[in-house]
Amino acid sequence: MYREGQATAIQRADYSAPAYWIDTVDLCFDLDPAKTRVLNRMFLRRNPEVPAQPLKLDGDELNLARVLVNGQGTSFKIEGTQLVLDNLPDAFELEIFTTCCPAKNTKLMGLYVSNDSFFTQCEAEGFRRITYFLDRPDVMASYSVTLRADKAKYPVLLSNGNLVAHGPLEDGRHFAKWVDPHRKPCYLFALVAGQLVAREQRILSRAGKEHLLQVYVRAGDLDKTEHAMNSLMHAVAWDEARFGLALDLERFMIVATSDFNMGAMENKGLNIFNTKYVLANQATATDTDYSNIESVVGHEYFHNWTGDRVTCRDWFQLSLKEGLTVFRDQEFSQDLAGEASARAVKRIEDVRLLRTAQFPEDAGPMAHPVRPDSYIEINNFYTVTVYEKGAEVVRMMQTLVGRAGFARGLTLYFERHDGHAVTCDDFAQAIADANPGSALATLLPQFKRWYSQAGTPRLHASGTYDAQARTYTLAVSQSCPPTPGQPPKEPFVIPMGVGLLGQDGQELPLQLAGEAAPVPGQRTLVITQATETLTFVGVDAEPVPSILRGFTAPVVLEFDYSDAQLLTLLAHDSDPFNRWEAGQRLALRRAIKSIAATAYPAGATALDDAYIEAMRSVLRHPLLDAAFKELVLTLPSETYIAEQLDVVDPQRIHAVREAMRAQLAHALADDWQWAYETHRDSGAYRPDPVSSGRRALAGMALANLCLVAQGSGPSASSGQASVWPGKAYQRFKDAGNMTDRLNALSALVSSGHALAAQALPRFHALFKDDALVLDKWFALQAGAPDRDGNVLPAVRQLMKHPDFTLRNPNRARSLIFSYCSANPGGFHRADAAGYVFWSERVMELDGFNPQVAARLARALDRWTKLAEPYRSAAREAIVRVAAKPDLSNDVREVVSRALAD
Ligand code: TRP
Ligand code: ZN
Fold first, then answer.
1. Which atom of ligand 1 is nearest to the CA of 303?
2. Distance between CA atoms of 306 and 451, rounded to whole angstroms?
3. Percentage above 90 pLDDT, the chain
4. Which of 133, 437, 525, 592 has the most CB atoms around its CB within 10 Å?
5. The CATH number fitting domain 20-195, selected from 3.40.50.970, 1.10.10.10, 2.60.40.1730, 3.40.50.720
6. CA dist., res. 346 & res. 358, Å (int)
7. What is the pLDDT of residue 477?
8. Which intervals hold domain Aminopeptidase N-like N-terminal (predicted)?
9. What is the mean pLDDT of residues 123-137?
10. pLDDT tens across 64-81, in order?
11. Which ligand ends up closest to the CA of 263?
12. 262 Cα–ligand 1 center, Å
């Protein structure tokens, strides 16, 4: 069986300050793919606040050549992966000379080679793969860096901060010296060397200071950097306008690489990005790509203050920078979107991600608090809980203190902690202290349970109307299911946006019992107890409650709405989030009923006229905008539906949802045609919310029309419908932008039409030289709706395609993850072949990139919920992975937790 506990868990409670401080670091690199030489000269000082002890420096896959203390040879020990030095003076110079092999660095952590260029990735613990160091975020030092390399092969030499010297060396080599004016932890160190070109932009800050912005890419990609640069300029301006945070560097650089484990990295002054989040033009990138680029460029830029100026004391505090920075990038995108409806669309998308990815994590074997208590491999804790739920926790703080109060809190946070490595407690304290008397300040210790308790709270509400007393009473209770290591939970502080609608859909004024007068419009009530009763007075008729407006807290709201109430909310709620939510609840209820029905094939007529008519009204609504309509008309995902069930039969869920999709396509055929004709032309390509919303709705309409043509039923057989696949193919060929082109291709693929077999090779031929577009090509096929088990053989075949490689994380994600993690109907096969495939790929990836392997390993997190035969087969596959000799700590942690569930 599997071996456990090879690496011990690190506990948050065990934190102790470092025994030494590192004041300065002078690094000198002789860059060579096969053997890079690193000379590291540091000044260290004993930390007088901790007992005297040896210096233990972290290292990983380094060849150690020399160690000097104050210029003298010295004795040292190697203990495991650490370099240990004893009998040191209180302050001294330490010189360490090592070599490493960037060309063989397949983990993409530390210094590695991609496309003949050098890149680094140091967060979380990659710097120890470059030199021996105190590799922990609370050790902050001043860096100077000299890079030496062949001038022809590596004309561009970059590191953090300012370029202070550069010039030629002998033998065709050259050098550049960089000095970072800001102290930083080593995880923010970066270097880049290679044949790169930059788009440049000079900007002026409000104070009139000039800054140079640069976006570095490979020579052929310069025409795809305009949007990233615009996003960066917007981000700089936004942080100054909204939070008074100005760029603190003369030069700010972004560099794109196609080999990257994650999205992007906020290295001080030298952000390194996955090409996916930099490169875009209308021919190759979709609207979603454009908006992701805006978010990620913003996210990394905002880290310059929330992460780099104030960093984490230890990795348990990761959400201090990540939750806060995700919150900031969400707000940035909302503010750029402008008007209320576009802001709401962004909010709905963010909540949808939280509920389809974070809620399952919170309910599964990897559940952990926003501030975890222990970990084996920190890379496994860059999670949707730390990021997205962490952002919701920050958002609740803003809700409790108001927008201006939150900005004041952030100002106080920087006054107190600028230049330091701090904790989540420090952050919450600053926001509360800047807002004395606020609900947050009053409830702070209880509020902070959001940091310490894992699991998604359930908020149960029920309403009673008393006609005589003219009161409406909401009985509210909260509970939170147990999570690994955390038995029963204490109640949370839950901000709850509430409004009441009259039967005609009009917003009612709200007056709580005991209040002197009604308050117009919605308000936010704060739930703190396990059970509470809220009584509204002066209510003339039974109202429809709109609860948790704007999704004011990351909880599951349970309210036993009638269909009629949901239809009222869908038609009238002034809160767009709850308007969308009402439609989702209507669809979910029908899906679950159909899944539970004994008749099989399930869901043939899952949807009733009332639901279909409601969807028709939304689709045809004269005032709602297209992006919002597209969200309302999108059925809840298979993953989201699965989370609502105790026992999950993925094939049944797939069948029901597909049947619902087909039914909606047929029943609204005329309306889809109208929607397509009226939204298909969005004018000259611009990725703004209005035109991308129109493209999204047109794309959805086309997919539905193709589905109608493929299906049986009256509208299909009428010759009318059969023209749509041909039209889609034409659209696919003629589209002026990638969004329309990919939507047309996807309409053919997802309807299973024969024309897909012509379109797919054509698409490949058109874009064979563009890696990011080929990723879409692989992903589309791996994510296609499964028909009689056809997806897995296609995926296996695609693995043999000359353009496929598991070594490139983007490509691995596009084929393997799209199948295992994003196509439940294709993946969960009764013959277990999907799970076998998964286990093979996890083990294969683990051989060279454990971080990516561990992400894939998470695809079976929810195996205990599966019905038989899936459950036993999934367990068997996990056991097979766990039994592999030499499994990485990364994957071991994931599979051991899965098996302990
Ligand atoms: N700090 C990065 C971000 O969220 C995340 C990141 C990028 C990362 N690359 C990584 C985390 C590698 C761990 C390992 O902006
Ligand atoms: Zn981040």
1. 15
2. 18
3. 95
4. 133
5. 2.60.40.1730
6. 17
7. 98
8. 101-188
9. 98
10. 999 999 999 999 999 999
11. 1
12. 6
Closest residue CA from atom 3 of ligand 1: 265
* Range with the poorest average pLDDT among 52-56, 225-229, 602-606: 602-606
Q: Ligand 1 test: best mutation among 188, 261, 317, 851, most atoms within 8 Å of CB?
A: 261
Instruction: List all residues 6 or more positions away from 294 whose beta carbon is below 8 Å from its beta carbon.
Output: 227, 231, 234, 332, 333, 336
d(CA 412, ligand 1 centre) in Å: 27
Q: Which of 111, 265, 268 to mutate to test the pocket of ligand 1 (most atoms within 8 A of CB)?
A: 265
Q: Out of 3-7, 75-79, 199-203, 872-876, which region has the weakest mean confidence (pLDDT)?
A: 3-7
State how far Cα 127 lies from the chain centre: 24
Residue 463, pLDDT above cutoff 80: yes
Please tell me which residue in 125, 294, 300, 331 is annotated as part of the active site: 300
The pLDDT score that the predictor gives to residue 721 is 79
Residue tagged 């805006």 (tokens)? 294
Structure token digits, residue 680: 């298909």
| 3-state SS class at 346 | helix
**Domain residue spans of the chain:** 20-195, 458-561
Q: Report the b/e string of 554-571 with b at 16+ CB within 10 A.
A: bbbbebebeeebbbbbbe
User: 265 — phi, psi (to 5°)?
Assistant: -140, 135
**Rg of the chain over CA atoms, in angstroms?**
28
DSSP 8-class letter at 151: T
Look at residue 1 in the predicted model and tell me its pLDDT. 36
Q: Is 300 a catalytic residue?
A: yes
Q: Which residues are near ligand 1 (CB < 6 Å)?
A: 121, 123-124, 261-262, 264-266, 299-300, 322, 379, 382
d(Cα 118, Cα 270) in Å, to the nearest integer? 14
Do the Cβ atoms of 243 and 415 come closer than 8 Å?
A: no
Ligand 1 geometric centre to CA of 477 (Å) = 38
Alpha-carbon distances of 337 from 214, 689, 778, rounded to whole Å: 25, 6, 31
Domain 458-561 belongs in CATH node 3.20.20.140: no
Instruction: Judge if 20-195 and 458-561 fold alike in CATH terms.
Output: yes
The pLDDT of residue 598 is above 80? no
